[in-house]
């Protein structure tokens, strides 16, 4: 970027320099041309070739009178025609005027000009040429002089404009632009160094942290948050989120393997025990054979459900990646799920209090909402041994949807309410094992709800039943 600015500045400076140079030279060219025309007007009425005797009286009457021993005030025939001194008018101008005769010999010059100096090549008309003499520009304006009466060539006039003012201005301008360019390059270089260092330093730090995490996936090294609202600040934020997500996946994998290994130990031991029992006595004892096969099948089914629930729990932790834009109609899912549960559990009375607005929408995958409702209702039914009744309340608040599943079962103590959402936690382990539970249902429900920015809570009292409430943000119209 600094290089582009520097090059642009240099190009701009060159353009400015060229424009100023052209304007100044054009001004001087007009002055030189006026002088050439003035001299031509004085000399073109000479009928013959130009000589010093007929040139000086017309260019400098005062000089001629002094040469003749007359005072400058005396009147003569020449004064009648030309009473001004064009040579004197050049006193304040750094110009050299040279008059040549037709053969190229110097007739007159107002400067220190060598009379043997060769006349430059002059065309038929007025011509102006810029030449470089000792690194200074000169404007050479030349023109042939012809007799006004006969039209014959009588001599030549050459005006050498030293362009002192122009050269001084251009020199100052070059010095000024060179100084500005050098200062600009230094400033731009410092600015570029600061910008590049400001960008490269975080990138190098990210590379260092990447290597550290690659060597130790559990490393907690993170990029410091950059206080800048640009792409680099966003990149650092995304980089840290990526590392957090990656480590979360690693921890999920470790926890999954550890939990499955721990929970499978019991059913595997049971199956192994029954197989050993069959090996010893089952071949000859039908009762032992039947009992062992039934127990083994029960444990195998439990292992199958356990593995499926663990997979569901793992998937629930990756919802924001798999289902980022899913939208669900809460009315339809509730009606469908409650209808299915009524059909499956005909021994239960399920009351549905629908206070939802028509077509209430939330940002959630339909199957996941259905899974959460089934987990809560199935869990309520497991612990409703005496009063087989459920109440489901659904309502639309200002900016959220509330769903409450209420049972009238055993209830949950305050101490256990803090633990029921933990993995593999069971309120009554013996009874839960008989009912086939693994203690993962509420953990899955909590993960699913929170993954969609919802909340799940429980209000319970021993002997009076429980209320599980879930809340989801209401989908706004502009998000549809």
Automatic annotation (TrEMBL):
Protein name, per record: Signal transduction histidine-protein kinase ArlS
The keyword Nucleus is annotated on this UniProt entry: no
Localization (cell): Membrane
One Gene Ontology MF term: phosphorelay sensor kinase activity
Domain Histidine kinase: 259-476
Presence of keyword Methyltransferase: no
GO annotations of cellular component type: membrane
Chief place of localization: membrane
Phylogenetic lineage: Bacteria, Bacillati, Bacillota, Bacilli, Lactobacillales
Swiss-Prot/TrEMBL keywords: Kinase, Membrane, Phosphoprotein, Transferase, Transmembrane, Transmembrane helix, Two-component regulatory system
Organism whose genome encodes this protein: Lactobacillus rodentium
């Amino acid at each position: 970027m600094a290089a582009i600015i520097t090059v642009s500045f240099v190009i701009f400076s060159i353009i400015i320099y060229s424009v100023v140079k052209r304007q100044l030279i054009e001004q001087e060219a007009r002055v030189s041309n006026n002088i050439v025309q003035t001299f031509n007007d004085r000399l073109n009425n000479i009928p013959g070739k130009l000589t010093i005797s007929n040139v000086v009286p017309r260019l400098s009457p005062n000089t001629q009178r002094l040469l003749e021993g007359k005072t400058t005030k005396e009147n003569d025939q020449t004064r009648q025609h030309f009473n001004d001194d064009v040579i004197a008018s050049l006193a304040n101008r750094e110009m050299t005027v040279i008059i040549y005769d037709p053969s190229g010999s110097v007739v007159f010059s107002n400067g220190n000009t060598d009379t043997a100096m060769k006349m430059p090549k002059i065309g038929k008309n007025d011509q102006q040429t810029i030449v470089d003499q000792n690194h200074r520009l000169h404007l050479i304006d030349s023109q042939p002089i012809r007799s006004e009466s006969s039209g014959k060539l009588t001599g030549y006039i050459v005006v050498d404009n030293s362009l002192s003012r122009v050269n001084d201005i251009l020199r100052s301008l070059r010095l000024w632009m060179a100084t500005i360019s050098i200062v600009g390059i230094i400033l731009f270089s410092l600015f570029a160094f600061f910008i590049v260092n400001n960008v490269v330093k975080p990138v190098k730090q990210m590379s260092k942290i990447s290597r550290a995490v690659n060597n130790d996936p559990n490393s907690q090294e993170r990029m410091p948050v950059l206080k800048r609202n640009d792409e680099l600040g966003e990149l650092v934020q995304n980089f840290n989120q990526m590392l957090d997500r990656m480590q979360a996946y690693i921890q999920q994998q470790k926890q999954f393997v550890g939990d499955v290994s721990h929970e499978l130990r019991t059913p595997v031991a049971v199956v192994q025990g029954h197989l050993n029992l069959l090996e010893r006595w089952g071949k000859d004892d039908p009762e032992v054979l039947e009992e062992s096969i039934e127990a083994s099948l029960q444990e195998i089914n439990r292992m199958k459900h356990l593995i499926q629930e663990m997979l569901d729990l793992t998937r629930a932790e990756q919802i924001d990646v798999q289902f980022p834009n899913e939208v669900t109609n809460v009315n339809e899912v509730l009606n469908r799920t409650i209808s299915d549960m009524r059909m499956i559990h005909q021994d239960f009375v399920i009351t549905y209090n629908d206070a939802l607005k028509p077509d209430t929408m939330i940002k959630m995958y339909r199957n996941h909402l259905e899974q959460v409702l089934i987990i809560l209702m199935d869990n309520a039914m497991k612990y409703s041994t005496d009063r087989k009744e459920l109440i489901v309340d659904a309502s639309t608040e200002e900016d959220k949807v509330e769903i409450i599943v209420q049972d009238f079962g055993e209830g949950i103590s305050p101490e256990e309410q803090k633990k029921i959402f933990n993995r593999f936690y069971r309120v009554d382990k013996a009874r839960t094992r008989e009912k086939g539970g693994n203690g993962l249902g509420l953990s899955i429900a909590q993960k699913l709800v929170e993954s969609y920015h919802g909340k799940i809570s429980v209000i319970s009292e021993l002997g009076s039943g429980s209320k599980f409430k879930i809340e989801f943000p209401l989908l706004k119209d502009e998000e549809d």
